[in-house]
Amino acid sequence: MIEHTFGTKRLVWMVGIAVSVVSLAPMALADPDHSLRFGPRLTTDHKVRAVVGPSVRIDDEGRISLAWIEEDKDIRTVFYARTEKQEGSIGAPVAVNQPTEAPYMRQEAPALAVTGDDVFLTWALTHPKLTPDKPFSNELRLSRSRDGGKSFLPSVLVNDDAQVIGHSFDSIHVAPDGAIHVAWIDGREGKKEPGTFVTRSTDHGRTVAKNLKVDE
């Protein structure tokens, strides 16, 4: 169970947003009523204009990973942070996107997958050919870290269409064999209802395969 608590506090021209996360402890099987136990609340404060997210994952060692987007002074940044041990404090945020990349501010948080020290995120980049009549257009990007989120390599393009459209509601999963699977929806076919597309990477996120539509 993840609990988000948003509190606002005006600081000059900025709004402070507090995001609280409650970690889920394993079910106490020895307890006859199988009640749940919760660990301590972890809180991060963001004195910025806006925050979208976070996405939260808990790895096999009990470490909590978070990914979110911040907007501050018209600059948007995708961030990642994690606890270094079970029930530890949240570490310093690390920027995921490159300074030259402008994340698209949308309603959903970056999709996040963690396996060991490999961290993978998909997020939306404002389309370089964005026009006023197509304000929701973006590219879907995949970013990866091989050092537990201490640094991130340059992102790669996920969608293989060249259209100025939206690519959103993405999800990401790492299979037992290490393949990275990504799914999302977009309207590249121009139909009334958008389609669901998938792709995968078999080289740790360096490249992605041709997009495949999975619905009709």
Task: Please give a handful of descriptors for the protein shown.
single chain, 216 residues, mainly beta, Neuraminidase, four-stranded antiparallel β-sheet, 15 strands, 0% helix, disordered N terminus
Explain how this protein is built.
There is one protein chain. The protein is globular and about 50 Å long. Helices cover 0% and strands 47% of the residues. It has no helices and 15 strands. The strands form 4 sheets. The protein has a 4-stranded antiparallel beta sheet with strand order 4-5-6-7, with no helix packed on it. It is mainly β and 216 residues long. A hairpin with a 2-residue loop joins β8 (111-115) and β9 (118-126). It has one domain: Neuraminidase (6 Propeller).
Q: What average pLDDT do the residues reach? A: 83
> Domains counted in the coordinates: how many?
1
Specify the CATH architecture: 6 Propeller
Strand content: over 45%
Helix percent reads under 10%
Spatially, the strands of the biggest sheet line up as 4-5-6-7
CATH class, named: Mainly Beta
Anisotropy-based shape: globular
What gyration radius follows from the Cα positions, in whole Å?
18 Å
Order of helices and strands: EEEEEEEEEEEEEEE
- Tally of extended strands? 15
